[in-house]
Structure to design on (454 residues):
């Protein structure tokens, strides 16, 4: 009898593993369980469907269940939810929602790709129908159905993270009368430092979005969001408070969890339980700057970790070296990106550093379409090693973060970065690219600090 690989979760962390395992082992029986209606999709694209840039949710699907069945010989079981893992018995209890039945399914190898769930604080009214989290395509379908079924004119987004702000912009594009973002923090986007987040807040206000900061949400009712400063009327509420690892199933089975209750994995994506693997938003990653485990929920990470797990499950050898926390988005007229550590994160980790900020243009200043870009860079004192960077700018700004992420991964100093042979032509950059200007300013700050210390 063929060995069976059982995969829990039909998105990136799960199906990337299933695909890679199949490429290496034609003899392996692979069964994948997905409790929703879609497999291998880009949840990051949901705001662009809401805003009308993308025609529909089906456009976000990379591979359908039938494509996995036909092309990879994977037994994909939709609307099938794993309810419990019995490690001693090597079986999983499965709830088949389509046929209203429960059964047990044995496995030789188990891969967990259960993803993450939107943070839903225990506030009064959080379960009301007008309150929506946005993490899966099913979440997106429910939100869109709400928007179509009711005449939505007022939207409130609770939380100023990536998905929340992208959804705010999406509803402006959709043409609703008012969009409000409310956040208890002093600025939006807590992954940025406040001075950089302020640039994002300004751009959103310029775009017609009301931004209310430092306001704690106390609950929800049928009329909208209740805060300490009064009610914010809404026909629809989007939660943009981030996500938490979906690990209740693993924890109940006794599988070790760590940071934010994410599943602990080694470099090959193995969990603490023999024969059990995990990848994606449900598990930890190793941070190359902090040099410790972190939880970072990004599709890029999930796909890479799933690939590594699948290669190993298929009898090969692969490791996932880690992350530097690179993220990028477009909000209204500005592009926003970050990598490595913010000042808050660097301070909490015990680093001594120099922080510099420069303003430049995305293209040669005389070239049509040149826009402003602000880059903030952190370098470790004495060593001069790059610790992190953030940028906010107009079109053409964001992908510069990839140069900075590469420099972080290579453990480059800011002095070494000043000599990078970056490309130049007026439509793309000033002759001194903003990355090089920031690196030079950071190197000068490190040098001045060393001189002052004697």
């Amino acid at each position: 009898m063929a060995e069976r690989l059982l995969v829990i979760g039909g998105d990136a962390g799960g199906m990337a593993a299933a695909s890679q395992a199949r490429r290496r082992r034609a003899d392996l029986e692979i069964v994948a369980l997905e409790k929703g209606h879609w497999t291998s999709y880009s949840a990051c694209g949901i705001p662009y469907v809401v805003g009308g840039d993308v025609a529909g949710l089906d456009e976000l699907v990379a591979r359908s269940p039938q494509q996995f069945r036909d092309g990879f010989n994977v037994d994909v079981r939709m609307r099938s939810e794993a309810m419990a893992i019995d490690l001693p018995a090597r079986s999983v209890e499965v709830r088949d929602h389509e046929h209203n039945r429960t059964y047990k399914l044995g496995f030789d190898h188990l891969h967990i790709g259960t993803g993450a769930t939107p943070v839903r604080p225990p506030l009064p009214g959080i379960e009301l129908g007008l309150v929506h989290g946005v993490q899966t395509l099913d979440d997106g379908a429910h939100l869109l159905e709400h928007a179509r079924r009711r005449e939505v004119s007022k939207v409130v987004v609770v939380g100023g993270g990536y998905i929340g702000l992208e959804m705010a912009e999406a509803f402006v594009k959709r043409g609703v009368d008012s969009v409000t973002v409310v956040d208890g923090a002093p600025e939006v986007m807590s992954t940025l430092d406040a001075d950089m987040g302020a640039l994002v807040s300004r751009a959103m206000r310029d775009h017609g979005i009301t931004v209310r900061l430092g306001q704690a949400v106390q609950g929800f009712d049928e009329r909208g969001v209740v805060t300490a400063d009064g009610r914010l009327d809404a026909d629809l509420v989007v939660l943009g408070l981030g996500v938490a690892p979906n690990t209740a199933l693993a924890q109940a089975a006794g599988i070790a969890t760590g940071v934010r209750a994410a599943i602990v994995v080694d470099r090959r994506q193995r969990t603490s339980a023999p024969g059990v693997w995990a990848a994606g938003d449900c598990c930890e990653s190793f941070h190359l700057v902090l040099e410790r485990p972190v939880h970072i929920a990004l599709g890029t990470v999930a796909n890479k970790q799933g690939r590594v797990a699948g290669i190993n499950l298929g009898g090969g050898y692969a490791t996932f070296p880690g992350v530097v926390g690179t993220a990028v988005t477009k909000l209204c007229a500005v592009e926003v990106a970050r990598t490595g550590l913010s000042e808050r994160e660097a301070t909490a980790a015990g680093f001594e550093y120099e922080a510099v900020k420069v303003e430049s243009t995305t293209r040669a200043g005389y070239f049509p379409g040149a826009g402003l870009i602000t880059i903030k860079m952190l370098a470790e004192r004495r060593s001069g090693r790059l610790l992190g960077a953030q940028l906010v700018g107009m079109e053409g700004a964001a992908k510069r973060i990839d140069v900075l992420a590469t420099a972080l991964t290579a453990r480059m100093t800011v002095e070494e970065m000043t000599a990078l042979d970056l490309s130049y032509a007026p439509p793309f950059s000033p002759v001194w690219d903003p990355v090089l200007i920031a690196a030079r300013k950071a190197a000068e700050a490190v040098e001045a600090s060393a001189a002052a210390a004697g």
Summary: The radius of gyration is 23 Å. DSSP finds twelve helices and 25 strands in the chain. The first strand starts at residue 4 and ends at 8. The chain has a mean pLDDT of 96.
